[in-house]
Write a structure and sequence with these properties.
The protein is of the alpha/beta class and 533 residues long. The protein has eleven helices and 21 strands. The protein has a seven-stranded mixed beta sheet with strand order 8-7-9-10-21-20-18, sandwiched between helices. The protein has a four-stranded mixed beta sheet with strand order 2-1-5-6, with helices on one face. A three-stranded antiparallel beta sheet has the order 17-13-19.
Length: 533
Protein backbone atom coordinates (compact mmCIF):
# COMPACT_ATOMS: atom_id res chain seq x y z
CA UNK A 1 0.00 0.00 0.00
CA UNK A 2 2.84 2.37 0.84
CA UNK A 3 4.38 1.78 -2.60
CA UNK A 4 1.05 2.43 -4.33
CA UNK A 5 0.60 5.62 -2.30
CA UNK A 6 4.03 6.85 -3.33
CA UNK A 7 3.24 6.16 -7.02
CA UNK A 8 -0.05 8.07 -6.81
CA UNK A 9 1.71 10.96 -5.06
CA UNK A 10 4.47 11.06 -7.72
CA UNK A 11 1.89 10.95 -10.54
CA UNK A 12 -0.04 13.78 -8.92
CA UNK A 13 3.15 15.80 -8.63
CA UNK A 14 3.94 15.23 -12.31
CA UNK A 15 0.40 16.23 -13.27
CA UNK A 16 0.62 19.42 -11.18
CA UNK A 17 4.01 20.22 -12.74
CA UNK A 18 2.56 19.81 -16.25
CA UNK A 19 -0.37 22.09 -15.34
CA UNK A 20 2.05 24.73 -14.00
CA UNK A 21 4.14 24.60 -17.20
CA UNK A 22 1.02 24.83 -19.38
CA UNK A 23 -0.30 27.73 -17.29
CA UNK A 24 3.05 29.49 -17.58
CA UNK A 25 3.03 29.07 -21.39
CA UNK A 26 -0.55 30.35 -21.62
CA UNK A 27 0.43 33.40 -19.51
CA UNK A 28 3.45 34.13 -21.74
CA UNK A 29 1.29 33.82 -24.85
CA UNK A 30 -1.36 36.10 -23.33
CA UNK A 31 1.19 38.76 -22.41
CA UNK A 32 3.00 38.54 -25.76
CA UNK A 33 -0.20 39.43 -27.63
CA UNK A 34 -0.39 42.67 -25.66
CA UNK A 35 3.26 43.57 -25.19
CA UNK A 36 5.49 43.32 -28.27
CA UNK A 37 9.27 43.16 -27.95
CA UNK A 38 12.12 42.15 -30.20
CA UNK A 39 15.89 42.03 -29.76
CA UNK A 40 17.60 43.79 -32.69
CA UNK A 41 21.40 43.87 -32.52
CA UNK A 42 21.94 45.90 -35.71
CA UNK A 43 23.39 49.40 -35.22
CA UNK A 44 20.45 51.26 -36.78
CA UNK A 45 17.80 48.76 -35.55
CA UNK A 46 16.81 48.03 -39.15
CA UNK A 47 14.76 44.94 -38.22
CA UNK A 48 12.46 46.73 -35.79
CA UNK A 49 10.11 49.64 -36.25
CA UNK A 50 11.50 53.11 -35.64
CA UNK A 51 10.26 55.24 -32.77
CA UNK A 52 8.31 57.38 -35.27
CA UNK A 53 6.42 54.36 -36.69
CA UNK A 54 5.66 53.04 -33.20
CA UNK A 55 4.27 56.45 -32.24
CA UNK A 56 2.10 56.64 -35.36
CA UNK A 57 0.71 53.12 -34.79
CA UNK A 58 0.06 53.60 -31.07
CA UNK A 59 -1.68 56.98 -31.60
CA UNK A 60 -4.34 55.65 -33.97
CA UNK A 61 -7.81 56.35 -32.63
CA UNK A 62 -9.74 54.29 -35.17
CA UNK A 63 -9.27 51.20 -37.29
CA UNK A 64 -6.90 51.30 -40.28
CA UNK A 65 -7.26 48.36 -42.66
CA UNK A 66 -4.17 47.03 -44.43
CA UNK A 67 -4.93 44.63 -47.28
CA UNK A 68 -1.94 42.73 -48.61
CA UNK A 69 -2.49 41.44 -52.13
CA UNK A 70 0.13 38.68 -52.33
CA UNK A 71 0.05 35.71 -54.68
CA UNK A 72 0.35 32.40 -52.87
CA UNK A 73 2.48 30.91 -55.65
CA UNK A 74 5.57 33.10 -55.51
CA UNK A 75 9.03 32.40 -56.93
CA UNK A 76 11.28 30.87 -54.24
CA UNK A 77 13.40 34.02 -53.97
CA UNK A 78 10.33 36.12 -53.05
CA UNK A 79 8.97 33.89 -50.28
CA UNK A 80 11.42 35.34 -47.76
CA UNK A 81 10.37 38.86 -48.82
CA UNK A 82 6.73 38.04 -48.07
CA UNK A 83 7.70 36.73 -44.63
CA UNK A 84 9.68 39.90 -43.85
CA UNK A 85 6.70 42.05 -44.85
CA UNK A 86 4.42 39.90 -42.68
CA UNK A 87 6.77 40.27 -39.68
CA UNK A 88 6.82 44.05 -40.09
CA UNK A 89 3.04 44.24 -40.33
CA UNK A 90 2.70 42.10 -37.20
CA UNK A 91 4.81 44.65 -35.36
CA UNK A 92 2.58 47.50 -36.54
CA UNK A 93 -0.46 45.52 -35.37
CA UNK A 94 1.08 44.90 -31.95
CA UNK A 95 1.75 48.61 -31.33
CA UNK A 96 -1.64 49.69 -32.73
CA UNK A 97 -3.48 47.81 -29.94
CA UNK A 98 -6.33 46.64 -32.11
CA UNK A 99 -6.53 49.68 -34.42
CA UNK A 100 -4.83 47.99 -37.36
CA UNK A 101 -6.46 45.09 -39.20
CA UNK A 102 -4.37 43.06 -41.63
CA UNK A 103 -5.77 40.82 -44.36
CA UNK A 104 -3.76 38.74 -46.84
CA UNK A 105 -5.58 38.12 -50.12
CA UNK A 106 -4.61 36.33 -53.32
CA UNK A 107 -6.38 38.03 -56.25
CA UNK A 108 -5.79 34.96 -58.43
CA UNK A 109 -8.25 33.00 -56.27
CA UNK A 110 -11.04 35.52 -56.81
CA UNK A 111 -11.74 36.59 -60.44
CA UNK A 112 -13.91 39.51 -59.29
CA UNK A 113 -11.13 40.81 -57.03
CA UNK A 114 -8.55 40.32 -59.77
CA UNK A 115 -10.63 42.51 -62.10
CA UNK A 116 -10.57 45.28 -59.46
CA UNK A 117 -6.78 45.25 -59.09
CA UNK A 118 -6.05 47.71 -61.88
CA UNK A 119 -8.61 50.16 -60.46
CA UNK A 120 -7.01 49.85 -57.02
CA UNK A 121 -3.61 50.58 -58.56
CA UNK A 122 -1.87 47.28 -57.87
CA UNK A 123 -0.51 45.71 -61.07
CA UNK A 124 0.23 42.10 -61.89
CA UNK A 125 4.00 41.84 -62.36
CA UNK A 126 5.81 39.25 -64.45
CA UNK A 127 8.68 37.57 -62.60
CA UNK A 128 11.33 35.24 -63.99
CA UNK A 129 11.99 31.84 -62.43
CA UNK A 130 15.07 29.68 -63.04
CA UNK A 131 14.50 26.06 -61.98
CA UNK A 132 16.14 22.86 -63.13
CA UNK A 133 18.15 24.73 -65.78
CA UNK A 134 14.94 26.09 -67.28
CA UNK A 135 13.82 29.70 -67.37
CA UNK A 136 10.10 30.33 -66.97
CA UNK A 137 7.97 33.27 -65.95
CA UNK A 138 4.98 33.79 -63.71
CA UNK A 139 2.63 36.66 -62.94
CA UNK A 140 2.36 37.71 -59.30
CA UNK A 141 0.75 40.33 -57.10
CA UNK A 142 2.80 41.91 -54.31
CA UNK A 143 1.04 45.15 -53.37
CA UNK A 144 -0.52 46.69 -50.27
CA UNK A 145 -3.55 48.98 -49.87
CA UNK A 146 -3.97 51.06 -46.69
CA UNK A 147 -7.55 52.24 -46.04
CA UNK A 148 -9.13 54.54 -43.46
CA UNK A 149 -12.73 55.71 -43.73
CA UNK A 150 -13.12 56.74 -47.41
CA UNK A 151 -9.40 57.33 -48.08
CA UNK A 152 -6.95 54.81 -49.50
CA UNK A 153 -3.23 54.77 -50.27
CA UNK A 154 -1.45 52.07 -52.27
CA UNK A 155 2.04 50.57 -52.33
CA UNK A 156 1.81 49.08 -55.85
CA UNK A 157 4.69 46.59 -55.72
CA UNK A 158 7.08 45.59 -52.96
CA UNK A 159 10.43 44.74 -54.52
CA UNK A 160 12.26 44.81 -51.16
CA UNK A 161 11.66 45.87 -47.56
CA UNK A 162 14.23 48.69 -47.48
CA UNK A 163 11.59 51.42 -47.89
CA UNK A 164 8.55 49.44 -46.79
CA UNK A 165 8.39 50.96 -43.31
CA UNK A 166 8.47 54.48 -44.71
CA UNK A 167 5.84 53.60 -47.32
CA UNK A 168 3.54 52.13 -44.67
CA UNK A 169 3.96 54.86 -42.07
CA UNK A 170 3.63 57.69 -44.57
CA UNK A 171 0.53 56.04 -46.07
CA UNK A 172 -1.05 55.64 -42.61
CA UNK A 173 -0.35 59.30 -41.86
CA UNK A 174 -1.71 60.37 -45.23
CA UNK A 175 -5.06 58.58 -44.82
CA UNK A 176 -5.56 59.47 -41.14
CA UNK A 177 -4.55 63.13 -41.15
CA UNK A 178 -7.34 65.64 -41.54
CA UNK A 179 -5.17 68.22 -43.29
CA UNK A 180 -2.59 68.10 -46.06
CA UNK A 181 0.50 70.30 -46.07
CA UNK A 182 1.54 72.18 -49.22
CA UNK A 183 5.12 72.52 -50.42
CA UNK A 184 5.76 75.19 -53.04
CA UNK A 185 8.72 75.55 -55.41
CA UNK A 186 9.46 79.12 -56.47
CA UNK A 187 8.85 79.17 -60.22
CA UNK A 188 11.79 79.73 -62.53
CA UNK A 189 12.03 83.02 -64.42
CA UNK A 190 13.94 81.44 -67.33
CA UNK A 191 10.95 79.40 -68.47
CA UNK A 192 12.22 76.04 -67.17
CA UNK A 193 9.79 73.64 -65.53
CA UNK A 194 11.08 73.78 -61.95
CA UNK A 195 9.24 70.61 -60.90
CA UNK A 196 10.68 68.70 -63.86
CA UNK A 197 14.18 69.91 -63.01
CA UNK A 198 13.82 68.34 -59.55
CA UNK A 199 11.76 65.39 -60.73
CA UNK A 200 12.97 62.87 -58.13
CA UNK A 201 12.23 65.27 -55.26
CA UNK A 202 8.84 66.12 -56.72
CA UNK A 203 7.89 62.44 -57.04
CA UNK A 204 8.96 61.72 -53.45
CA UNK A 205 7.16 64.75 -52.00
CA UNK A 206 3.89 64.03 -53.85
CA UNK A 207 3.42 60.90 -51.76
CA UNK A 208 2.94 62.97 -48.61
CA UNK A 209 2.34 66.57 -49.64
CA UNK A 210 0.54 68.76 -52.14
CA UNK A 211 3.31 70.14 -54.38
CA UNK A 212 2.94 73.17 -56.62
CA UNK A 213 4.87 75.93 -58.37
CA UNK A 214 4.69 79.33 -56.70
CA UNK A 215 4.49 82.31 -59.06
CA UNK A 216 5.16 85.64 -57.33
CA UNK A 217 5.68 87.71 -60.46
CA UNK A 218 3.82 91.00 -60.91
CA UNK A 219 3.79 91.59 -57.16
CA UNK A 220 1.75 88.53 -56.22
CA UNK A 221 2.40 87.39 -52.61
CA UNK A 222 3.26 83.82 -51.72
CA UNK A 223 -0.14 82.09 -51.27
CA UNK A 224 -1.18 81.71 -47.64
CA UNK A 225 -1.89 77.97 -48.04
CA UNK A 226 1.79 77.24 -48.86
CA UNK A 227 3.29 75.82 -45.65
CA UNK A 228 6.87 75.64 -46.94
CA UNK A 229 8.55 77.22 -49.95
CA UNK A 230 11.71 75.88 -51.62
CA UNK A 231 13.81 78.44 -53.49
CA UNK A 232 15.97 76.12 -55.58
CA UNK A 233 18.89 77.22 -57.78
CA UNK A 234 17.57 80.74 -58.46
CA UNK A 235 19.10 83.08 -61.02
CA UNK A 236 18.82 86.82 -60.54
CA UNK A 237 15.34 87.60 -59.18
CA UNK A 238 13.37 90.82 -59.60
CA UNK A 239 13.62 92.97 -56.49
CA UNK A 240 9.87 92.67 -55.92
CA UNK A 241 10.20 88.85 -55.77
CA UNK A 242 12.80 89.24 -53.03
CA UNK A 243 10.36 91.49 -51.19
CA UNK A 244 7.58 88.89 -51.39
CA UNK A 245 9.93 86.14 -50.13
CA UNK A 246 11.01 88.37 -47.24
CA UNK A 247 7.41 89.18 -46.28
CA UNK A 248 6.43 85.51 -46.49
CA UNK A 249 9.13 84.73 -43.90
CA UNK A 250 8.04 87.64 -41.68
CA UNK A 251 4.44 86.35 -41.83
CA UNK A 252 5.65 82.99 -40.51
CA UNK A 253 6.27 81.09 -43.73
CA UNK A 254 9.22 78.70 -43.77
CA UNK A 255 11.75 78.69 -46.61
CA UNK A 256 14.51 76.34 -47.74
CA UNK A 257 17.10 78.19 -49.85
CA UNK A 258 19.23 76.05 -52.20
CA UNK A 259 21.77 78.49 -53.63
CA UNK A 260 24.31 77.87 -56.42
CA UNK A 261 27.09 80.41 -56.81
CA UNK A 262 28.36 79.25 -60.21
CA UNK A 263 26.94 78.73 -63.68
CA UNK A 264 28.57 75.97 -65.72
CA UNK A 265 28.45 76.04 -69.49
CA UNK A 266 27.82 72.61 -71.01
CA UNK A 267 30.98 70.60 -71.64
CA UNK A 268 33.41 73.18 -70.26
CA UNK A 269 35.72 73.15 -67.24
CA UNK A 270 35.27 76.85 -66.54
CA UNK A 271 32.44 78.43 -64.59
CA UNK A 272 31.19 81.94 -63.95
CA UNK A 273 29.72 83.55 -60.86
CA UNK A 274 25.94 83.33 -60.70
CA UNK A 275 24.23 86.58 -59.74
CA UNK A 276 21.33 85.29 -57.66
CA UNK A 277 21.00 88.66 -55.83
CA UNK A 278 19.66 86.78 -52.79
CA UNK A 279 23.05 87.01 -51.08
CA UNK A 280 22.27 90.31 -49.32
CA UNK A 281 18.85 89.03 -48.20
CA UNK A 282 20.36 85.89 -46.64
CA UNK A 283 23.18 87.89 -45.10
CA UNK A 284 20.55 90.09 -43.48
CA UNK A 285 19.12 86.92 -41.87
CA UNK A 286 22.60 85.97 -40.61
CA UNK A 287 23.93 83.48 -43.19
CA UNK A 288 26.51 84.60 -45.74
CA UNK A 289 26.93 82.62 -48.96
CA UNK A 290 30.56 83.13 -49.96
CA UNK A 291 31.96 83.11 -53.51
CA UNK A 292 34.46 80.37 -52.62
CA UNK A 293 34.06 76.77 -53.77
CA UNK A 294 34.80 74.00 -51.25
CA UNK A 295 37.16 71.16 -52.16
CA UNK A 296 37.70 68.09 -50.02
CA UNK A 297 40.07 65.12 -49.83
CA UNK A 298 37.03 63.02 -48.92
CA UNK A 299 35.13 63.17 -52.20
CA UNK A 300 33.31 61.29 -54.93
CA UNK A 301 34.95 59.99 -58.08
CA UNK A 302 34.08 61.07 -61.60
CA UNK A 303 34.62 59.52 -65.01
CA UNK A 304 35.84 61.74 -67.85
CA UNK A 305 37.46 61.34 -71.25
CA UNK A 306 40.73 62.81 -72.38
CA UNK A 307 41.59 62.00 -75.96
CA UNK A 308 40.83 58.30 -76.46
CA UNK A 309 41.30 57.48 -72.80
CA UNK A 310 38.53 57.22 -70.21
CA UNK A 311 39.77 58.12 -66.74
CA UNK A 312 38.13 57.59 -63.35
CA UNK A 313 39.57 59.79 -60.66
CA UNK A 314 38.82 61.43 -57.33
CA UNK A 315 37.25 64.87 -57.76
CA UNK A 316 37.71 67.28 -54.83
CA UNK A 317 34.93 69.54 -56.19
CA UNK A 318 32.45 66.80 -55.20
CA UNK A 319 32.87 66.85 -51.39
CA UNK A 320 31.52 63.72 -49.73
CA UNK A 321 30.00 64.39 -46.33
CA UNK A 322 30.59 61.56 -43.86
CA UNK A 323 29.08 60.87 -40.45
CA UNK A 324 31.32 63.37 -38.66
CA UNK A 325 30.05 66.15 -40.95
CA UNK A 326 26.43 65.94 -39.72
CA UNK A 327 25.13 67.57 -36.55
CA UNK A 328 24.74 64.62 -34.14
CA UNK A 329 21.83 66.20 -32.26
CA UNK A 330 19.48 67.42 -34.99
CA UNK A 331 16.85 65.01 -36.37
CA UNK A 332 17.21 66.28 -39.95
CA UNK A 333 20.72 64.86 -40.28
CA UNK A 334 21.69 62.79 -37.23
CA UNK A 335 20.81 59.48 -38.91
CA UNK A 336 22.43 60.24 -42.27
CA UNK A 337 25.81 58.72 -43.02
CA UNK A 338 26.85 60.37 -46.27
CA UNK A 339 25.97 62.95 -48.93
CA UNK A 340 27.61 64.40 -52.01
CA UNK A 341 27.54 68.14 -52.80
CA UNK A 342 28.73 68.95 -56.36
CA UNK A 343 30.40 72.37 -56.74
CA UNK A 344 29.31 73.64 -53.36
CA UNK A 345 30.31 76.95 -51.78
CA UNK A 346 31.18 77.75 -48.19
CA UNK A 347 28.76 79.45 -45.81
CA UNK A 348 29.56 81.84 -42.99
CA UNK A 349 27.44 82.24 -39.86
CA UNK A 350 27.23 85.88 -38.78
CA UNK A 351 26.67 85.31 -35.08
CA UNK A 352 28.34 88.52 -33.94
CA UNK A 353 25.91 90.76 -35.84
CA UNK A 354 22.80 88.61 -35.26
CA UNK A 355 22.74 87.85 -31.54
CA UNK A 356 18.95 87.45 -31.58
CA UNK A 357 19.08 84.59 -34.12
CA UNK A 358 20.16 81.03 -33.26
CA UNK A 359 22.22 79.10 -35.80
CA UNK A 360 22.76 75.37 -36.24
CA UNK A 361 25.34 74.06 -38.72
CA UNK A 362 23.61 70.90 -39.94
CA UNK A 363 26.20 69.90 -42.55
CA UNK A 364 29.87 70.73 -42.90
CA UNK A 365 32.78 69.46 -44.98
CA UNK A 366 35.55 67.34 -43.49
CA UNK A 367 38.63 68.56 -41.68
CA UNK A 368 40.57 67.92 -44.91
CA UNK A 369 38.69 70.49 -47.01
CA UNK A 370 39.90 73.79 -48.42
CA UNK A 371 38.71 76.63 -50.70
CA UNK A 372 39.21 77.72 -54.28
CA UNK A 373 39.13 81.51 -54.28
CA UNK A 374 39.05 84.12 -56.99
CA UNK A 375 38.44 81.78 -59.93
CA UNK A 376 36.43 78.74 -60.90
CA UNK A 377 38.70 76.22 -62.60
CA UNK A 378 36.85 72.88 -62.52
CA UNK A 379 39.48 70.87 -64.41
CA UNK A 380 39.78 67.42 -62.73
CA UNK A 381 43.38 67.07 -63.95
CA UNK A 382 44.73 70.21 -62.34
CA UNK A 383 47.24 70.11 -59.52
CA UNK A 384 45.25 70.60 -56.33
CA UNK A 385 47.51 72.49 -53.93
CA UNK A 386 45.57 73.72 -50.89
CA UNK A 387 46.87 76.49 -48.68
CA UNK A 388 47.59 75.05 -45.25
CA UNK A 389 45.71 77.82 -43.42
CA UNK A 390 42.54 77.05 -45.44
CA UNK A 391 42.38 73.35 -44.52
CA UNK A 392 39.47 73.02 -42.10
CA UNK A 393 35.71 72.19 -42.08
CA UNK A 394 33.33 74.62 -43.80
CA UNK A 395 29.55 74.99 -43.17
CA UNK A 396 27.41 73.84 -46.12
CA UNK A 397 23.90 73.86 -44.61
CA UNK A 398 22.79 76.19 -41.80
CA UNK A 399 19.46 76.31 -39.96
CA UNK A 400 18.59 79.79 -38.63
CA UNK A 401 15.87 80.22 -35.97
CA UNK A 402 14.38 83.23 -34.24
CA UNK A 403 12.30 86.33 -34.84
CA UNK A 404 13.51 87.70 -38.17
CA UNK A 405 13.51 91.38 -39.06
CA UNK A 406 12.44 92.38 -42.54
CA UNK A 407 15.13 93.27 -45.06
CA UNK A 408 12.76 95.97 -46.32
CA UNK A 409 11.75 97.44 -42.93
CA UNK A 410 13.36 100.83 -43.68
CA UNK A 411 13.20 100.64 -47.48
CA UNK A 412 10.67 101.56 -50.09
CA UNK A 413 8.59 98.72 -51.47
CA UNK A 414 10.06 97.66 -54.83
CA UNK A 415 7.60 98.35 -57.67
CA UNK A 416 5.99 95.40 -59.40
CA UNK A 417 5.71 94.93 -63.12
CA UNK A 418 2.15 95.52 -64.20
CA UNK A 419 0.11 93.45 -66.60
CA UNK A 420 -1.97 95.27 -69.18
CA UNK A 421 -5.10 96.66 -67.62
CA UNK A 422 -4.05 95.71 -64.08
CA UNK A 423 -2.57 97.85 -61.35
CA UNK A 424 -0.23 96.21 -58.84
CA UNK A 425 -1.39 96.41 -55.24
CA UNK A 426 0.72 98.27 -52.67
CA UNK A 427 1.03 96.02 -49.62
CA UNK A 428 1.82 97.03 -46.06
CA UNK A 429 5.35 96.00 -45.07
CA UNK A 430 5.68 93.93 -41.91
CA UNK A 431 8.90 94.88 -40.13
CA UNK A 432 9.38 91.88 -37.81
CA UNK A 433 7.96 88.37 -37.44
CA UNK A 434 5.43 88.09 -34.62
CA UNK A 435 6.62 84.62 -33.63
CA UNK A 436 9.79 82.59 -33.97
CA UNK A 437 10.43 81.15 -37.41
CA UNK A 438 13.08 79.07 -39.20
CA UNK A 439 14.87 79.10 -42.54
CA UNK A 440 17.38 76.65 -43.97
CA UNK A 441 20.22 77.80 -46.21
CA UNK A 442 22.10 75.20 -48.29
CA UNK A 443 24.91 76.41 -50.55
CA UNK A 444 23.98 73.99 -53.34
CA UNK A 445 20.93 72.84 -55.31
CA UNK A 446 22.55 70.39 -57.70
CA UNK A 447 22.68 67.65 -55.06
CA UNK A 448 18.97 66.93 -55.68
CA UNK A 449 18.98 67.31 -59.46
CA UNK A 450 18.50 64.15 -61.54
CA UNK A 451 22.23 63.38 -61.82
CA UNK A 452 22.82 63.38 -58.06
CA UNK A 453 19.48 62.72 -56.33
CA UNK A 454 20.14 58.95 -56.25
CA UNK A 455 23.35 59.38 -54.25
CA UNK A 456 22.99 57.95 -50.74
CA UNK A 457 21.66 60.58 -48.37
CA UNK A 458 21.06 63.38 -50.89
CA UNK A 459 17.31 63.26 -51.40
CA UNK A 460 16.81 61.99 -47.83
CA UNK A 461 18.39 65.17 -46.46
CA UNK A 462 15.94 67.42 -48.30
CA UNK A 463 12.93 65.22 -47.50
CA UNK A 464 13.92 65.19 -43.82
CA UNK A 465 14.13 68.98 -43.89
CA UNK A 466 10.66 69.25 -45.47
CA UNK A 467 9.25 66.88 -42.83
CA UNK A 468 10.88 68.92 -40.06
CA UNK A 469 9.43 72.22 -41.31
CA UNK A 470 5.92 70.85 -41.84
CA UNK A 471 5.08 67.92 -39.55
CA UNK A 472 8.00 67.84 -37.13
CA UNK A 473 9.68 64.51 -36.41
CA UNK A 474 6.88 62.12 -37.45
CA UNK A 475 8.67 60.67 -40.49
CA UNK A 476 12.28 61.72 -39.92
CA UNK A 477 14.64 58.83 -39.35
CA UNK A 478 12.56 56.11 -41.03
CA UNK A 479 13.85 56.56 -44.55
CA UNK A 480 17.52 56.98 -43.59
CA UNK A 481 18.01 53.97 -41.29
CA UNK A 482 18.99 51.56 -44.08
CA UNK A 483 21.22 54.03 -45.93
CA UNK A 484 24.71 53.04 -44.88
CA UNK A 485 28.00 54.23 -46.28
CA UNK A 486 31.20 53.53 -44.38
CA UNK A 487 34.16 55.01 -46.29
CA UNK A 488 37.72 54.28 -45.26
CA UNK A 489 39.22 57.05 -43.12
CA UNK A 490 41.83 59.40 -44.58
CA UNK A 491 45.28 58.10 -43.63
CA UNK A 492 48.57 59.96 -43.58
CA UNK A 493 51.52 58.62 -45.55
CA UNK A 494 53.13 57.50 -42.27
CA UNK A 495 50.05 55.44 -41.35
CA UNK A 496 49.86 53.95 -44.84
CA UNK A 497 53.49 52.81 -44.64
CA UNK A 498 52.93 51.40 -41.15
CA UNK A 499 49.96 49.34 -42.35
CA UNK A 500 51.86 48.20 -45.45
CA UNK A 501 54.87 46.93 -43.48
CA UNK A 502 52.59 45.39 -40.85
CA UNK A 503 50.86 43.36 -43.58
CA UNK A 504 54.18 42.29 -45.05
CA UNK A 505 55.89 41.36 -41.78
CA UNK A 506 52.97 40.27 -39.60
CA UNK A 507 52.51 36.79 -41.10
CA UNK A 508 56.22 35.76 -41.04
CA UNK A 509 56.58 37.08 -37.49
CA UNK A 510 53.45 35.24 -36.37
CA UNK A 511 54.67 31.98 -37.95
CA UNK A 512 58.05 32.40 -36.25
CA UNK A 513 56.39 33.01 -32.85
CA UNK A 514 54.14 29.95 -33.25
CA UNK A 515 57.17 27.86 -34.29
CA UNK A 516 59.13 29.04 -31.26
CA UNK A 517 56.20 28.22 -28.92
CA UNK A 518 55.84 24.75 -30.43
CA UNK A 519 59.59 24.13 -30.17
CA UNK A 520 59.55 25.26 -26.53
CA UNK A 521 56.59 22.97 -25.63
CA UNK A 522 58.23 19.93 -27.31
CA UNK A 523 61.52 20.61 -25.55
CA UNK A 524 59.74 20.89 -22.20
CA UNK A 525 57.98 17.51 -22.79
CA UNK A 526 61.30 15.84 -23.62
CA UNK A 527 62.81 17.14 -20.38
CA UNK A 528 59.86 15.74 -18.37
CA UNK A 529 60.13 12.32 -20.05
CA UNK A 530 63.86 12.24 -19.39
CA UNK A 531 63.31 13.02 -15.69
CA UNK A 532 60.69 10.26 -15.41
CA UNK A 533 63.17 7.71 -16.73
Amino acid sequence: MAGLSRKISAGANYFILILIILGFLVLINFLSTRHFSRIDLTENKVYTLSAASKKVASNLDDIVTIRCYFSKKLPPYLINLKQKANDMLDEYKAYAKGNIQINFLDPAENPELENKMRFIGIPQVQMNILEKDQATSTNVYMGIAISYEDKQEVVPFIKDTNNLEYDLTSSILKVTRKEKKTVGFLSSHDGDDILKKYQAVHAALKRQYAVEEVDISEGKPVPAHVDLMIVAGPDRLPERDKYEIDQYIIRGGKVIFLIDIITISGGTIQATYRETNLIDLLEHYGVKVTKNLVLDRINAQITFQTGYTIIRAAYPFYPKIIKEGFDPDHPIVNQLESMIFPWVSALEVLKDTHEDIRFKVLVQSSQYSWLQKGMYNLNPQQQFMPIKEDIKPYPLAVLASGRFKSFYADKEIPPAKKSEGKAAETPETLSESAEENQILVVSNSRFVESNFANQAGNIEFLLNAVDWFTWGKDLIGIRSRRITDRPFPILSERHKKAIKFANILAVPILVAILGFIRFYIKKKKKVKLKNLK
